[in-house]
Amino acid sequence: MIDRPTPVFHSRDSLITFAEAYQQKHEMLVALENNDFEQAYSYYPEASKKFSDILAKLKDNSEISAVLLSEHLRCFSAEWAITKMCYYGVEVLQKWRRYDEAVNQLQTLLQQDVFCFDSRGRWYDRLALNLHQHLKQPEKVHVVLSLVYQLLMTYFDLNDCVPLNQAVSCSHCKRCMVGELCM
Predict the structure, then answer these.
(1) Mean pLDDT score of the chain, rounded to an integer?
(2) Cα torsion at 104, 53, 92, 84 (round to 10°)?
(3) Contacts for 30 with CB less than 8 Å, ≥ 6 apart
């Protein structure tokens, strides 16, 4: 039997901050599910501001206690909930057809790789779709696909990524422009 308890909350304040952020995230999600986009959006500006602060701390290597947690435990941090709220904000912006703002927020979310790591694929997908379909900027989609390819090369063997490599280098194929793999 292995018993390695990991303290998730290092203080009472971090627990309270997490609970408040998670409650707001939940309320925002419920509003989204009920198609109450105005209510859902009301949480977004504050979350976006807090996320900018988180990003600044990450860039300055300031201490964020959640960074020290294992990846699977980071979902129990206020920073994770705030990051998720920013993505919910993207969904609202897309519903309102404010694709420029949605693209900007997606690019901001992708500047970090600590929180909501498992959502990054979805973020890249939405970024490519918004750039190609809605903003009609296929040249930027090519850049996004190149970034995705570079990230994949970090985590997978070269042989696993050959179809994506072909898709990134295939600029004449319309399927490649929307993020589908060209076989």
Answers:
(1) 87
(2) 110
(3) none
pLDDT at 2 over 80: no
Give me the amino acid identity at 51: F
Other C-beta atoms closer than 10 Å to the C-beta of 69 total: 19
Q: Is 106 exposed, middle or buried (0-12, 13-18, 19+ CB in 10 A)?
A: buried
In 10 A of CB 64, how many CB atoms? 17
Cβ-count burial 141-155 (b if 16+ within 10 Å, e if not): bbebbeebeebbeee
CB 55 within 8 A of CB 108: yes
Condensed to tens digits (0 to 9), the pLDDT of residues 119-149 reads 998 999 999 999 999 999 999 998 998 888 8
The domain spans of the chain are: 12-103
| Separation between Cα atoms, residue 139 and residue 95, nearest integer Å | 24
Query: Measuring CA to CA, how many Å separate 133 from each of 49, 87, 92, 94, 180?
Result: 28, 19, 17, 12, 13
Q: Are 91 and 29 in contact (CB under 8 A)?
A: no
